[in-house]
Request: fold
Amino acid sequence: MKRAGLLLALLLAACSGGQAPANKAEKPQDLEKAAIERGLVRNPADTDVAGLYARDTDRICIVPDEELGYRIGAFVDYGDRITCSGSGRASRVGEALHIEFGEDGSCSFDAKYDGDKIAFPGALPDGCNKFCAKRASYAGLEVARLSESAAEAAAMRDANGKRLCGAN
Reply:
């Protein structure tokens, strides 16, 4: 009987692979975190949001401002005078970029910032419509960083030649 017990114990040990059971409290590593650790993706916490961003004819400029945090300007051009052009202020908290166009605060929303890209939400307050002509909209605007230069960002102009982030 002793042999049978010993044999059973050896069989059970062989079936388990000799490994301790996995800790169920451990979480699989987040893909974005793994990419940041390996240097494949820029860590948003380590980057300054100031710079010039673009995709096709869409542009966003962001420059530091001592009083406002950041000045921001955005220009969208679909052709045939279907455009949006506005400027205001921005502040950053982690991956959120709080944006306010105009003086009255009626176009205020949070965009996503990942270190290289800025993405506006798909639905914006009605107050943002006053910055757009015809069917144009800022909704869903997504741009990627072109430059980290505040001087280049300050030089950005809309279709009428107005500087959106710098002094006119």
In short: The CA atoms of residues 117 and 144 lie 4 Å apart.
